[in-house]
Amino acid sequence: MAAGPDLEPLLLCPRCRAALSLQRDKAQDRAYFCTNANCVYHTESFPMVEGTPALIDFADSIISREAFEQRRGVSVIDRDNLSNRLLREAVYGGNPIAAENGSQFVQTLRALARAPRVLIVGGGERGSGTAALYEAGDINVTGIDVYASEAVDIVADAHRLPFSDAAFDGVWIQAVLEHVLDPHQVVSEIHRVLKPGGIVYAETPFMQQVHEGAYDFTRFSRSGHRWLFRHFEEIGSGDIGGPGQSLIWAIRYLARALTGSNKAATAVAAPFFWLRYLDRFCRRDYAADAANGVYFLGRRSTVALAPRDMIAYYPGPSA
To answer: Considering the domain boundaries, does residue 3 fall inside one?
Structure first.
C-alpha cells in the first residue's frame, strides 16, 4: 500500500513543496503527482517500490532515478545481517547510551502531545534505542530512508523532506548525518518539519573511519555537533564511546589498509576488544576529545546560539 491516509495530508512535493495527489498512472497502478502545474512532477510521477512512494527530487539528489528503479529500491550498500551486527558489538561494544536516551526521548514526547508523531530519518533499519518508539502503542512512527525496506513508509532524501511544516512532534536521526552531503541543510529541514517545541535526537560519529564508502562525508566533535543544532535548545548531549573504542576502530582500519580484507581486519581487531573497557576509567573532559561518537537531544527553538557561546560550550580540558 501507499502512504496511509493519516500521512497523506502531510506529504508535499520535494521540489516545489506543493501538495501531492495520488492518481492512476500508465506505468504504475497508483502513483503520486505534484499538484503544481508548473512542476516537472505534475506530469512525471514519483516512482513506487512495492507500494512505497519514492518522493525524491532526483534532479537535485545524490540518488539516481535510473539506478534506483533498476535496483527496485534496494540499498546500494550491503546491509549488515544479524551475525555481522553481533560480531561488531562483541568487538566494539554496543551503543551504551541509546536505550536510556530513547526512553528520555519518549517521555519528553509524551509531555508534548497525547499521540505524538515521530519521523525517523534513516529508518531503513531499526537502530539502537528505537525499541521504545516502535513498541509504544501511543506513538505514530514514520520511517524514511533512501532505500525501501519493511520499516520505511516513504523513500526520501533528507535534504528535501517531503512533508509539510510542523508535521511532527519529534525527529530521530541516528548515524545518518555523516552520510549526507549537507548536514546543515538536513538539520534545517528537521527544524522546519518539527512543531513548535518539538524535539530532535541525533547521534553522529566523531573518531570513526569512513564506512559505507562513497556515501560517507562528514564527522563532528561535540562542539561542532552543537553548532549544527544551534537552532535548538539543548536538553542533553554527550559522547558515545571513548578513546578505547576509537582505538579499536583505528586498529581494524590499519589492518584493513595492510591486508585489503574486511574479514582479516576484523580478525586482527577482535583480540583488542578489551580496550573499550578502559573508557570507564578515562576522565570525561579529556575523553571527549577522542569520543567515538556524539549525541544531542534538543527542543526546536526560535532563538539560535551565538558564535561567541561556542567557546564556553567546549566540554574538554581548559588550555
So the answer is: no
Task: Look up the pTM and report it.
Answer: 0.95
Alpha carbons 177 and 247: distance in angstroms, whole number: 22
Question: Could you give the angle at the alpha carbon of 240 between the alpha carbons of 237 and 244, nearest 5°?
Answer: 140
52, 153 contact by CB (below 8 A) = yes
> Do residues 270 and 191 both lie within one domain?
yes
CA distance 202 to 24: 38
Whether residues 168 and 87 share a domain: the answer is yes
Domain that holds residue 213: 82-313
76 falls within a domain: no
45-95 tens-digit pLDDT: 999 998 899 999 999 999 999 999 999 999 988 876 655 777 778 888 888
Q: At how many degrees (to 10) do helices 262-269 and 243-259 cross? A: 140
Q: Say if residue 143 is in the same domain as residue 229.
A: yes
Long-range contacts of 266-273 (CB under 8 A, 24+ apart): 266/87, 266/91, 269/91, 270/90, 270/91, 272/247, 272/248, 273/90, 273/91, 273/92, 273/93, 273/248
